Amino acid sequence: MDLAEQAQYIADPVAVIIAVGEKEPTALIESPTLGRPLPETLSERQVDNLLEAPDVIDPLGLRDRAMLELLYATGLRVSELVTLEISQVNLQQGVLRVMGKGNKERLVPMGDEAADWILRYQAESRPLLIQ
Asked: Where's the Tyr recombinase domain (predicted)?
């Protein structure tokens, strides 16, 4: 088959189908890949139970509560949360500067509730935990 015939087959899908002997034109089309199913969501009660689970009297419990509140308020990935530095948290403006996938930096707003728990953690627990 010369170059002109090959070009005709490429330009004419029906000619390609005939050339390979397929009677069903859709047989050569690949099926689309199916995405992953969406994760299950928590009910409001389950979220409340999760947020209230840490014992905030204990310094580690207060740290955990602040982390859970921040996760809930911002939608951060756990990997983003655990690599977050204090310098990336701006409580006055209510935003976090987060390095996400592909080393892309983004500003993430946080709610007042999460900011209040971070302030409480910084005042009450962090000094005890970094000794």
From this structure: 37-131
pLDDT band, very low/low/confident/very high, at 2 (cuts 50, 70, 90): low
Strands 105-109 and 95-99: antiparallel
What pTM was computed for the model? Answer: 0.70
Closest CA to 95 of 115, 123, 124: 115
Tell me the H-state helices in 21-125: 44-52, 59-74, 78-82, 112-120
Domain that includes residue 56, residue range: 44-129
CATH number reported for the structural domain that contains residue 94 in this entry: 1.10.443.10
Could you read off the pLDDT of 89-113 as tens digits, one per residue?
Answer: 999 999 999 987 888 899 999 999 9
Question: Tens digit of pLDDT for each residue in 31-53?
Answer: 788 888 988 999 999 999 999 99
Between CA 82 and CA 114 the distance in angstroms is: 16
Between CA 49 and CA 61 the distance in angstroms is 14
| 39 occurs within a structural domain | no
